[in-house]
Amino acid sequence: MKLHVVTRGDGPDLVLLHGWSMDSAIWGEFAEALCPHFRLHLVDLSGHGRSPRVAPLSIDSMATAVASIVPPRSLLCGWSLGGMVSMHLAAVQPALPRGLVLIGTTPRFSSGHDWPHGTPADALASFAAELDADPQTLLARFRASMCRSDPQERKLRRLMSSLPPAPADLTAFREGLDVLQNTDLRDDTKRIASPVLVIHGGRDTVVPAGAAVWLAQRIDRARLHLIDECTHLPFLSRAEDCAALVRQFASEIESFK
Predict the structure, then answer these.
(1) CATH at residue 202
(2) What pairing do the DSSP bridges indicate for beta strands 196-201 and 222-227?
(3) How many domains does the structure of the chain reveal?
(4) Strand partners, 40
(5) Are strands 196-201 and 74-79 parallel, antiparallel or unpaired?
(6) For residue 91, which of 190, 220, 213 has the smallest C-alpha distance?
(7) Which residue numbers delimit the AB hydrolase-1 domain (predicted)?
(8) Known catalytic residues?
(9) Which of 23, 65, 135, 193 is the most core-located residue (most Cβ within 10 A)?
(10) Confidence (pTM)
């Protein structure tokens, strides 16, 4: 199974992995700011955008599909679900990535008695039921929630409204929710040897900032950059700033401690 990838620019390889229910078009201005400095690989994850679905969809199958198209020693930049795929790939194939950039991501999306930095299981179950009942309304509300309380909310809402509607076949979206609900990568973080840059919005209500703090503390070679006023989309609301962080990370990666 071959993922859909658009390659642009020239320089070190940088692979961009989007979040649940999105596709590679989400990167917008962030990708434009990076293109002069990297060879970008804009990937549609399995069952999203123009990539076919792997059956069954799982964190393993998604990471395997990405590994099959990633040039050796690439930087992986993953947002939300894409960040989870990046972490799992780095844990199971530690020699493959040169480094990771994790934006608005978490080792575990659902909360539990020993993990307060997530979404309650009953809320995720309700979300899945609403996806089946009225996918267009659910996705519109989800996209709006990612923008709320960001200083660039109006701009972000315009960007979200320009994204494609829900597809007719929701199988991959449903299975993607199952991946979010059932994946726990906390043990995987112990096996990540690559340097890691963690970027997170301080006002993120989709993935609480506590998850980013935890990642930065747990992964040996990780640094955290918290953007206090941003929500779940710092790479869009602060595209130039986030791109500058990635460029700096790439330039310092060989001496990254």
Answers:
(1) 3.40.50.1820
(2) parallel
(3) 1
(4) 8, 14
(5) unpaired
(6) 190
(7) 14-244
(8) 80, 204, 232
(9) 65
(10) 0.97
